[in-house]
Amino acid sequence: MLEIKNLRASLEEEGKEILKGLTLTVEAGKVHAIMGPNGSGKSTLSYVLAGRGGYEVTDGGATLEGRDILAMEPEERAAAGLFLAFQYPVEIPGVGNMTFLRTAVNAQRRTRGEEEMDAATFLKEVRARAKELKIDAEMLKRPVNMGFSGGEKKRNEILQMAMLEPRVCILDETDSGLDVDAMKLVADGVNAMRSPDRGFLVITHYQRLLDHIVPDVVHIMVDGRIIKTGGPELALEVEKNGYADLIEEAA
Amino acid sequence: MALPQAKQTATEERLAGLNLPAAPGWTRPAREAALARVQAMGMPGRRDEYWRFTNPADFISAVPVPATHHARQKVPVFDGMDRVRLVFVDGVFDPAASDDPALAGVEITRLAEAQDQDIHWAAELYGALEARGQSPVARPLAALNTAFATDGVLIRATGRAEKPVNLIYQHESETSDAILHHVIKVEAGADLTILENGPAAARFNKVMEVDIAEGGAFHHVRVQGRDHDRRAATHIFARLGRESMFKSFTMTANGALTRNECVIELAGDDGVAHVAGACLGDGADFHHDDTVFVTHDAERCESRQVFKKVLRNGATGVFQGKILVRPGAQKTDGYQISQSLLLDEDSQFLVKPELEIYADDVACSHGSTSGAIDETALFYLRSRGVPRSEAVDLMVLSFIAEAVEEIESDQIRDEIVERLSRWLARHRR
Ligand SMILES: Nc1ncnc2c1ncn2[C@@H]1O[C@H](COP(=O)(O)OP(=O)(O)OP(=O)(O)O)[C@@H](O)[C@H]1O
Ligand SMILES: [Mg+2]
């Protein structure tokens, strides 16, 4: 579903290479987890896939259901089914959460040639999903992420994901900053969306999240590459021993 | 003191084409005094401290630069509101196109018909607040207005007005040169809302004097738009009594040249004055200037100035804003923010923020910024599938939100946002 082949990317300004030949395939219906030390390039990978400016892809590529996503604008990637839950969701004063979500849902539908969602249906949908994530109606009225706590912002990312119904979801440290209950809510939200035609790429530092969102495959990323791929037991190993042994083993 | 030669000549040229009304009635002394002020101050020039950023030439030329009037909007702004419409066409009141003024539940008299009527309160106010506002900064265009205004309205509210009064300025003639002067008195505890819209004339000089007595409230929302060529110099002179409130918001889009001055005097304790503006400028032929002067002359008053300008394709925005805190005006809470969002490198924002404080127990802050669109936020919106152009529009609305939020009425605020959105959609590249 999401195929990343030998992807190399550098910072546009400094020319520093961050992704150094990364290969990874997320199949439909599967949850892949990426773990790796700080600065190994996990967020960079998610940004390059989502189309953020400031990076230059120097080699390799990435396709979503066979389509070359790297050639697309960020909004086209979203409409093609890619979703990134940000490590640091952005605050946007003056733009209501609901306005934003509705604009996004309908823009994607338009791009795909589908009919727009009418206001009443939209409202019903948002309310239902927000309730599942224990996001209160007051929060929905506020500007995008304004005055949200760290955990609320992460839940809001999951709400957006639920409304946009993407094909491939990349979650960048969605668990960081969450208390135990919030983590459970977020995991339930993600699990509810698991389906045979949707893939997940979950970036995390902690095994704990993976107790709730049980991955099919775990990758270890170090210095811009995947150095080891295995099952859920790999996450346990990292939790216990850290990365040192794995790095040595790969060297 | 004699005027410099260039100023003298400019003033004579401007005055040559103007006549005091034949029968000014009770306005005579005020008009004559204003004319004397004009002659003493002279017309504004580029060297004057508050005209460095804006060229006054088109305001003082003997005849206006012609301006083509654009077809009127199908649905005029404020149309969904229950309001009393008073229509001026090229600066002349048009009773046939207007609603019955009596419906507003306030006293309304047309200036052009008032001279023979015995309107004490107006006789005391006409030109008086303008004259007070001439110091410490000269505002000759306002004095010119007091002397030569041909029409306007005198409004006195003694209680809560039943409906907002909507002054609608239509523009028909390509060479119209309108001078309107309104005088508004909000009596103790009264509450009045004035709405203004329309381009008015090829050249428009307007003064609004607003006197708010103890506990009174005055709301003002103005939309300046449509005509690309029109030139407007407007002044608001407001004086606030004890525990009174003044709130003014202006949205400007289009128009070749706009200078909006707002001179506010907090004269009684515990007054609140907010003045805000949002402007959208597109093109090198757009020049928009907000010049604000707030004087705190009483204790525990609050003032806020919130001005946002979105500029592109070579548009120019100017903000000159001052907070003056007089001796004894303790516990003053003064705030001023002026910001521009520059959508390209050709546009410019010129600012002159000033604080002058002569009391020791005050909290005053001011800030001014100029910046481009926040790329991180833009990417966030696009990553959710919002196309770039729509995402930019959302960022623009986000940028001006703080100014728009100064509008108290939800209905009006929603309508303004709606219109801004449509303006943005029309101006997408
Ligand atoms: N815009 C940028 N400017 C400068 N350096 C950058 C930029 N973006 C990323 N980097 C650098 O690239 C490297 C990878 O960063 P990235 O954020 O992708 O790491 P990460 O694996 O997500 O780390 P963490 O686990 O701490 O979130 C780091 O060394 C970081 O400093
Ligand atoms: Mg990261």
From TrEMBL, chain A:
Q: InterPro entries, from UniProt?
A: AAA+_ATPase (IPR003593), ABC_transporter-like_ATP-bd (IPR003439), ABC_transporter-like_CS (IPR017871), FeS-cluster_ATPase_SufC (IPR010230), P-loop_NTPase (IPR027417)
This protein's superkingdom? Bacteria
An example Gene Ontology molecular-function term? ATP binding
Q: Does the keyword Metal-binding apply?
A: no
Q: Which Pfam families match?
A: ABC_tran
Domain ABC transporter per the UniProt entry, residue ranges? 2-248
* Family matches, as CDD domains: ABC_FeS_Assembly
Give UniProt keywords alphabetically.
ATP-binding, Nucleotide-binding
Query: What does the similarity note say?
Result: Belongs to the ABC transporter superfamily. Ycf16 family.
Which PANTHER family does this UniProt record tie to the protein?
ABC TRANSPORTER I FAMILY MEMBER 6, CHLOROPLASTIC
From the Swiss-Prot or TrEMBL record, give the protein name: Fe-S cluster assembly ATP-binding protein
Q: Which organism is it from?
A: Rhodovulum euryhalinum
From TrEMBL, chain B:
Q: Which InterPro entries does the record match to this protein?
A: Fe-S_cluster_assembly_SufBD, SUF_FeS_clus_asmbl_SufBD_core, SUF_FeS_clus_asmbl_SufBD_sf, SufBD_N
- The source's domain of life comes to Bacteria
Q: Which SUPFAM superfamilies match?
A: Stabilizer of iron transporter SufD (SSF101960)
Q: Which GO terms describe its biological process?
A: iron-sulfur cluster assembly
Pfam families from the entry? Answer: SUFBD_core, SufBD_N
- Indicate the segments forming the SUF system FeS cluster assembly SufBD N-terminal domain, all copies: 30-155
**Coiled coil regions in record:** none
Q: Which family does it belong to?
A: Belongs to the iron-sulfur cluster assembly SufBD family.
Cite the PANTHER family for this sequence. PROTEIN ABCI7, CHLOROPLASTIC
What is the name of this protein? Fe-S cluster assembly protein SufD
- The organism is Rhodovulum euryhalinum
